[in-house]
Amino acid sequence: MDIEVNPNEIIKTNSRGLRGTLKESLADEVSGALAPADAQISKFHGFYEQDDRDVRRERQVQFLEPYYSFMLRARLPGGVCSAQQWLAIDEVGRELGNGSIRLTTRQTFQYHGILKKNLKPLIKRINQAMIDSIGGCGDINRNVLCNPNPEQSALHQTVYGWARRISEHLLPRTRAYHEIWLDGEIQSGGEDESIYGNTYLPRKFKTAVAVPPHNDVDVYTNDLGFIAIAEGDELVGFNVVAGGGMGVTHDDPSTYPRLADELGFVSPEDVIAVAEAVVTTQRDFGNRVSRRHARLKYTIDRMGLDDFVAQVEMRSGVRFRPSRPVTFTSQGDRFGWAADADGSWYLTLFIENGRVVDAEQSQLMSGLRKIAQVHTGEFRITPSQNLIIAGVDAADKVAISTLAREHGLLTDGPSPTRLESIACVALPTCPQAMAEGERYFPAFIDAIDEMARRKGIERQPIVIRMTGCPNGCARPYVAEIGLVGKGPGRYNLLIGGDGVGMRIARLYRKNLNEAELLNTIGELFERYAAEGSPEERFGDFTVRAGIVQPLHNPAEGFHEPA
Ligand code: SRM
Ligand code: SF4
């Protein structure tokens, strides 16, 4: 009897190494969209078909097809690019995107609003700047996160090198991208996809490299994580963790957020073999019937951790040694100027929800362009959607500060909570959004700030994360306060994350509107102000005070309000 597989599996199998009929779809001038199968294949090339949800209804009434455009996500391991590359990113965004650049929670950037006819010129232009978009999306390894940690420059450089190597090693071998977008030599397909095979992975796959004590990359929320173990500035190896993931489906107990399990310690020279073995184990054991249950976290829970580890050891030829002790003490970014260990300086800029755009009150896009014109070092995108200007000579600090201040990139305004909080894209571009994300979040934080001031806890940073749906793109399930879109203007409220990404938050109240959210959070703030202390994070307080119980096994009980 044939085993039924998910239709995406057939699309991948028939795609001739991810070529599909993308060329024909692009040439079709009648529709702004791609053929449906190509809209799946396009993800492996880094772009998604979308339509403007704000004008859907209006166009339907006029018997017009939806207003199609594309979102493209680049591959930028560790979020690092040169100032020169930033200038190219900026120029392309202005000329071929919608005039904005979106920094993402995985340390890269997205363009929105790209018309079909502009896809090829856009991809060519970013590649001329030595940036590609292979595996920006799709059922393969995605952009590899690496702790931006500039205060330990030598260690960062080494660890960043590993993030790049993992990213390169886990690229697909097909030449389809070069052929279709860069006019490379035409091949028939059939390249040796030795890691992925011709059906690639059952689902997306995410890898992060962390440098303790900062958990900026939220390493435990990734399918695969490497935690750097250093002696002084020298890297001695990595603790490997696997099986993290955030995405859930509302009210479906067979789906749950999960933190990665410890596999053990390995030496740096074993990293690539272990990464490949984890990927091929997921390739062979992952669920290819239900995409909802296809991530590595479910594979590990189904196989059992011991069998999973045994597979990885057998395939890699590496034996895990016991994990080394590790402590994470912070998540998120530290803002303003700081000195690097190599004597240079870096400036961390707060970019609200990662949206780089020129607006009336602040010209962020122009400001960053002007900084890139005078800066000779790096730009680093952080996993909290912010930006670091790194490698600045002491002599250039004033000029860069002046430009940043003039363009609204350096303000004294944001509260500690706003600085630590993030929201996903959501409406109007995201097809999955049930509620607003980044468009609404700044106003919501205004109300939270006001309430925190009234209760006298305004100096306390609280990690708040909002997403427009339960997919979890802003990692709300490890926030101290998570807000997860349920319907227009309505969110589930989760509390109890530890602020360093090592404890899953609990569902506290379901389907609240703004007034209900603010009332509920207001009551919790009241108790925190009375019974907590500045040394205790809000998330820890909610657990200590027994308001929520920590969830030791999210596979059980995650969907029940605490
Ligand atoms: Fe995500 C899908 C945006 C990080 C979990 N995500 C999407 C799509 C492509 C919607 C879609 O399916 O068509 C969103 C595009 C919106 C738009 O208009 O731009 C989208 N995800 C984002 C970004 C841009 C959010 C942001 O505000 O920064 C992040 C881009 C990351 C990157 O550069 O690669 C983004 N997404 C994440 C993260 C966080 C992370 O990886 O650290 C998660 C949770 C971690 C995880 O994967 O478990 C995440 N996105 C999802 C899921 C749920 C996956 C699951 O296992 O259930 C989906 C839906 C899906 O895959 O079916 C999704
Ligand atoms: Fe879209 Fe949901 Fe991701 Fe937000 S969390 S960007 S609404 S898929």
Number of strands: 20
Question: In which order are the strands of the major sheet placed?
Answer: 1-2-5-4-13
Structural class: alpha+beta
Biggest sheet overview: 5 strands, antiparallel
Distance between the termini: 44 Å
How is the secondary structure organized here?
Layout: H1 7-13, H2 22-27, H3 36-41, E1 47-51, H4 56-61, E2 68-73, E3 80-82, H5 83-96, E4 101-103, E5 109-114, H6 116-128, E6 145-146, H7 153-169, H8 176-181, E7 207-210, E8 224-231, E9 234-242, E10 261-266, H9 271-285, H10 296-303, H11 305-316, E11 336-339, E12 345-349, E13 355-356, H12 364-374, E14 378-381, E15 387-392, H13 397-406, H14 416-420, E16 422-423, H15 441-455, E17 464-467, E18 481-487, E19 490-495, E20 506-512, H16 514-531, H17 538-544
Helix pairs in contact: 5-6, 5-12, 7-9, 9-11, 12-13, 15-16
This protein binds siroheme (SRM) and iron/sulfur cluster.
Iron/sulfur cluster binds near residues 424, 430, 433, 468 and 469.
